[in-house]
Amino acid sequence: MKSLSIGGLNIAVPIIQGGMGVGISLHRLSSAVAHEGGVGVISSAGLGLLYRHLSKDYLEASILGLREEIRKAREKTSGWIGVNIMVALSNFEDMVRTSIEEKVDMIISGAGLPLDLPKYLQKDSVTKLIPIVSSGRAAKILCDKWKNGFNYLPDAIVVEGPKAGGHLGFKANQIQDEKFQLEELIPEVVNEVAAFEKEYNQEIPVIAAGGIYTGEDIYNMIQLGAKGVQMGTQFVTTEECDASDEFKQTYITAKEEDVEIIVSPVGMPGRAIRNEFLDAVKRGDKKPINCPVKCIKTCNVETTPYCIINALMNAYKGKLQAGYAFAGSNAYRATHIRTVHEVMTQLQEEYQRAEAMHAMTTEEICVL
Predict the structure, then answer these.
(1) Fewer Cβ atoms within 10 A, N terminus or C terminus of the chain?
(2) In 266-325, where do the E strands start and end?
(3) Ramachandran category for residue 211: left, alpha or beta (phi over 0 → left; psi -120 to 50 → alpha)
């Protein structure tokens, strides 16, 4: 694989580990991926609950928890570390400011367009900014907004397709529509970004995300114009993943038909692994809601059937009877727990085989 350059940072292996909350990708997983030459990403979602032993105030605990996670990751690796921050978080600004103060290498932001993200940078800031989009139109709007408002262009852009895990930036009827699949979106965004690259003489690498599972998948995305990929599902079933063993086991025991689209309390479709908790929600059973803090801007506590942050926190801890696991479309393909090193090695070997196969003539392939 060719290395990936993001704002002058040279990433040896062009793989960004997706930020997965609540608690699925913290310092253990992110540092392990960074150590292998990729970008390890800490999820900022729900840290106020994970670190409530540091403060009873959710916002303060979130800040303290994020600082601790970044510092723990730094202690374990000298590789590249990022933080995933959802625009929909009620403490979005706190998480952004904290990440920049801690000089994290990059912020990756989605679940809404981060239209004002550059305003948080200071003159001495070193953090690179990477928005997540789901269309060429969104990429153009964001680049225009950042350049006109802050004289700043994205250091890279992640394009997330509808096969991703967790919350999806698509309407329900678009998820299976061929026009909205990642293979269609990548060339579209690459084309939009190329105009800004040419006009301002600045490289803006496009990163493909959503449903990428093998080295061959990575190779195919690169052929479409992407410079790298973001992957989450592959890293869940690793020894270093921060989730409980019970959470990881849901992936290993899942069948293809268990990976389903749900309606999230935050007002977006999401992809998760079916279980009794989700079946109960479908039947109309409401779960008791105790909301000490509104963690998501778009969540309506009065009408939602359950508290999503509590459900995801329970799943992270292994209490699947009171929660569920978000997952990408390929979660059912996991068969056992591996190390991050084994995953990264296999991905690179698969990529090399795909590249070699592509270089072969038709006659040579027929002989095989």
Answers:
(1) C
(2) 269-273
(3) left
How is 15-70 classified by DSSP, letter by letter? Answer: EEEPP-TTTTSSHHHHHHHHHTTSEEEEE-TTHHHHTTTT-SSHHHHHHHHHHHHH
Q: For residues 274 and 286, give the distance between their C-alpha atoms in angstroms, rounded to a whole number.
A: 17
How many CA atoms does the CB half-sphere of 336 hold within 13 Å? Answer: 3
User: CB neighbours of 59 closer than 8 A, spacing ≥ 6?
Assistant: 48, 91, 94, 293
- The interaxial angle of helices 58-76 and 27-35, nearest 10 deg, is 30
Residue carrying structure tokens 């006009």: 199
Q: How far is CA 176 from the centre of its chain?
A: 20
pLDDT value for 176: 87
| Integer angstrom CA distances of residue 246 from 197, 231, 278 | 45, 21, 17
Homologous superfamily (CATH) of 4-243 is Aldolase class I (3.20.20.70)
CA dihedral 87, 92, 95, 101 (to 10 degrees): 90
Where are the domains positioned within the chain?
A: 4-243, 246-322
Query: 361 Cβ partners below 8 Å, 6+ apart?
Result: none
User: Tell me, what's the pLDDT at 82?
Assistant: 98
Distance CA 275, CA 250 (A): 9
Average confidence (pLDDT) per 10 residues, the chain, 368 residues: 96 97 96 98 94 92 97 97 92 96 97 94 96 96 97 98 90 85 96 97 97 97 98 98 97 97 86 95 76 62 77 94 96 97 98 90 56
Distance CA 12, CA 50 (A): 32
Closest to 130 in 3D by CA, of 31, 244, 41 = 41
pLDDT at 363: 53
Query: Strand 80-84 and strand 39-43: pairing?
Result: parallel
Contact between 203 and 157 (Cβ < 8 Å): no
Q: Which two tokens stand for residue 181?
A: 């699949």
As a whole number of angstroms, the distance between CA 156 and CA 46 comes to 26
Which residues are 4's β-sheet partners? 11
pLDDT of residue 265: 80
